[in-house]
Amino acid sequence: MHQTISLTVVADHKFFGECLVSVLRECQDFSVCDLVRNETDVLHIVKRHPPDVILIDRHLTDQTAFKLTRHLSKHYPDIKVLIFGVTEAEPEIRECVEAGARGYVSKEASCSDLRQIIELVAQGETICSPHMVHALFSHLSELAREPWDGEAVEPVPLTARELEILYHISKGWSNHQIADHLYLSLHTVKNHVHNILKKLQVKRRLEAVEYAHKRRWLSHRYY
């Protein structure tokens, strides 16, 4: 049976928030549970009935969007957080990623773009434009080139296949792209990604890549 995606919208501008909720309710695949305007109400809602996806307005006061995203990412990891209203500026997107958002919706996005992004994030995908994927992984590559302190290399806890998949993740590939390239099912790739995150004790793909880069596991490609 088809299951709708439950949503909560966080926006302190009441008129804008109500307009956004109205647009989202036109889509039969979405169930918009709440429109909330402050952090306290969000936390009250997620304790009672956690939604599948929370959309948070980038322009909440005092960096609340990022603070709230970090809190939800840590304490409610099953909730997918999307930050909307951002620019394509690298520092801002990096802040979204580091806070734990599963994706972002730019100021230039259309209603159709928003619906598609919500659906992909609800399915477990991480959303980032190709331009920003390149910028973010270039940053990680720079970290990997920093001088090594000469400590012994840690044993790699990943299998050869998991390391291969992590290598492709480090190149900015999606699960679909990896599955097609390696002739695997999407389900198999998702299982591998889940195991990678579990073994490295991280929550996000980008964290796994950074973890591996710092240990020089991806410095040479043998697969």
Question: Would you mind describing this structure in some detail?
Answer:
This protein is of the alpha/beta class. It folds into two domains: 124 residues, Response regulator (Rossmann fold); 68 residues, Arc Repressor Mutant, subunit A, CATH 1.10.10. α6 packs parallel to α10 and α7 crosses α9. The chain starts with a strand and ends in a 9-residue tail after the last helix.
List keywords for this structure.
223 residues; alpha/beta; Rossmann fold; Arc Repressor Mutant, subunit A; 2 domains; 13% strand
CATH topology of the largest domain: Rossmann fold
Helix-strand pattern: EHEHEHEHEHHHHHH
Q: Reading side by side through the largest sheet, how are the strands ordered?
A: 2-1-3-4-5
Q: How many strand units?
A: 5
SS element count, helices: 10
Strand content: 5-15%
Query: Can you give the helix content as a percent range?
Result: 40-55%
CATH superfamily of the largest domain: Response regulator
Give me the secondary-structure category: alpha/beta
- Rg over alpha carbons: 18 Å
Write the layout of secondary structure elements.
Blueprint: E1 5-10, H1 14-25, E2 30-36, H2 39-48, E3 53-57, H3 64-75, E4 80-86, H4 90-99, E5 103-106, H5 111-122, H6 130-144, H7 160-170, H8 175-182, H9 186-200, H10 205-214
Helix pairs in contact: 3-4, 6-10, 7-9, 7-10, 8-9
Please sum up the structure shown.
By secondary structure, the protein is α/β, with parallel strands linked by helices. It has ten helices and five strands; from the N terminus they run E-H-E-H-E-H-E-H-E-H-H-H-H-H-H.
